[in-house]
Amino acid sequence: MTFSIHGLAVSRGIAIGRAVLVASSRVDVAHYFIQPEEVEAEIARVRAGRDAVVEEIARLQASISRMGPKEAPTELAALLDVHLMLLQDEELVSGVKHWITERLYNAEWALTTQLEIVARHFDEMEDAYLRERKADMEQICERVLRAMKGAQSSVVQPAQRGSRKGSQQDLLLDDTVDVPLVLIAHDLSPADMLQFKQSVFAGFITDVGGKTSHTAIVARSMDIPAVVGARTCSQLVRQDDWVIIDGDAGVVIVDPSPIILAEYGFKQRQGELERGRLQRLLHTPAVTMDDEKIQLLANIEMPEDAQHALKAGALGVGLFRSEFLFMGRHGKLPDEEEQYQAYKKAVEGMQGLPVTIRTVDVGADKPLDESVRDDAHLNPALGLRAIRWSLADPAMFLTQLRAILRAAAHGKVRLLIPMLAHASEIRQTLAHVDQARAQLDRRGLAYGPVQLGAMIEIPAAALSLQLFLKYFDFLSIGTNDLIQYTLAIDRADESVAHLYDPLHPAVLRLVADTIAECRAQGKDVSVCGEMAGDVTLTRLLLGLGLRSFSMHPAQILAVKQEILRSDTSKLAAWAQRVRTAEDPALELAGGYV
Ligand code: PEP
Ligand code: MG
């Protein structure tokens, strides 16, 4: 039966495909596709994990049987029998094999997927005793997962399948050949999302998350339809259900009727045509009708993204979120050489265009690893994140600074510091940059000049602009956090997403003042938060004086189209009206005349 689920629209377009559910587990589980020739080895890994748990249980049983009848814990003995029985459960064993063989899931993914299916069957059982065995099943699966993790000698590198079409794997996918897949999960960390980059998924849905959560940002950078904050979606949808994602409306339609499918198929083709039309603007300079030149830059997460940035017509990278190099590394952070190579790759990839590298911004909704996700802190968004984290670990910070400075020998590099608020933090940061240079001098390593910039993403920073303008060559407005901190709305929390408002007069005032002050002092200023790539806000930002926008490459052409149709001389007065209106959204919707 068809039903729909409403969430938040985070990445445009329509995706139609079969659901792939990623089960959440208390154990940190990697999800990736294997190669067909790895199927046997992957099945063997699950078997080895299961055998290890069977042995563990047998050892426990043996020690119980050595106890005298008085001290032997009979309940535990009975429980171990149940666990042994569940480990042989036919539905579990054959299901795991199915996901590995037919869908090429890695062993852990196959096990958690099947666990979820089996767990639902337990939920549906009439008998209360049997229903309670669900917890046992979960326990033994977690033990198997842990055993598999322990047996793993090195970090598993996900083998991504570039495209399913025409690939060898298709032969193994039988009825699913060429059927697009959409990924559904309760939650995905930004590191998970990165793993799914270049994967086969046609769209993403998560139960939790806000519009500018980092998971949503990565989905947007992949330019595939996505909905977050879909609440109970991962519970309502079942593996292999047909699903439509309407990324523009933030709606998920499950098990659509043929009429609905046809309607969305039409919408999908219309969207593709529109994107095709935009390609004509690729080589057109971003100049307004009154001849104002606008700089369109790209936000990237990995060095390889530089090529997408160039292809999309970006005139440089306005934000390289370097923290993505640090995530999902199981505690082993990239050393100076690895970072240097990564930054150099991005710099060389941009072929002489400037690359703005932001120092790590981990913490809050960007944990380094799932396993170290720091829920212990009551309020991680206000905690040790970004520059605070860097200054708390000077060795790590200096390593990154040296790597960036060395990469600057290969092209134009701008160094950007996130989340600054205090003069003392600014002074400490600058001292670290000097120290990194001195260390490179001592080692005789080449490095290049960098322009130094600060992100304006804490209201306190926006309200102390003179301090920032004194020390920095350029400023970049991080509207995602600026909105979060101005309005006290967690950007990753879907339950308050309706209050996350880029058009709140307070936010507009901070953005407008920052732009105006930078312009008055002849300093470069750009917006690199999601506002920059939102076509409904392009004219407003132009009217407020913004001339440099940094966004995901996929949004560049649509923003350029707005710029080509704009006349900044007519926008300034209107933008001030919007900024000072009681309800700026209403004023904005009225358009400028
Ligand atoms: C921002 O806060 O607007 C920004 C660009 O940084 P991030 O989204 O990575 O926090
Ligand atoms: Mg930020």
UniProtKB/TrEMBL annotation:
Catalyzed chemical reaction(s): L-histidyl-[protein] + phosphoenolpyruvate = N(pros)-phospho-L-histidyl-[protein] + pyruvate
InterPro entries: PEP-util_enz_mobile_dom (IPR008279), PEP-utilizing_PTS_enzyme (IPR050499), PEP_util_AS (IPR018274), PEP_util_C (IPR000121), PEP_util_CS (IPR023151), Phosphohistidine_dom_sf (IPR036637), PTS_EI (IPR024692), PTS_EI-like (IPR006318)
Domain spans labelled Phosphotransferase system enzyme I N-terminal: 6-133
Gene3D superfamilies noted in UniProt: Phosphoenolpyruvate-binding domains (3.20.20.60), Phosphohistidine domain (3.50.30.10), PtsI, HPr-binding domain (1.10.274.10)
TM segment ranges: none
Keywords from the named record: Cytoplasm, Kinase, Magnesium, Metal-binding, Phosphotransferase system, Sugar transport, Transferase, Transport
Cofactor(s) named in the record: Mg(2+)
EC number(s) per entry: 2.7.3.9
Residue ranges of every copy of the PEP-utilising enzyme mobile domain listed in the record: 181-250
Pfam families to which the protein is assigned, alphabetical: PEP-utilisers_N, PEP-utilizers, PEP-utilizers_C
Enzyme class: transferase
GO function terms (MF aspect): phosphoenolpyruvate-protein phosphotransferase activity
Compartments where located: Cytoplasm
Domain PEP-utilising enzyme C-terminal: from-to ranges: 278-566
Family statement drawn from the similarity comment of this UniProt entry: Belongs to the PEP-utilizing enzyme family.
Function: General (non sugar-specific) component of the phosphoenolpyruvate-dependent sugar phosphotransferase system (sugar PTS). This major carbohydrate active-transport system catalyzes the phosphorylation of incoming sugar substrates concomitantly with their translocation across the cell membrane. Enzyme I transfers the phosphoryl group from phosphoenolpyruvate (PEP) to the phosphoryl carrier protein (HPr).
Listed name of the protein: Phosphoenolpyruvate-protein phosphotransferase
Gene: ptsP
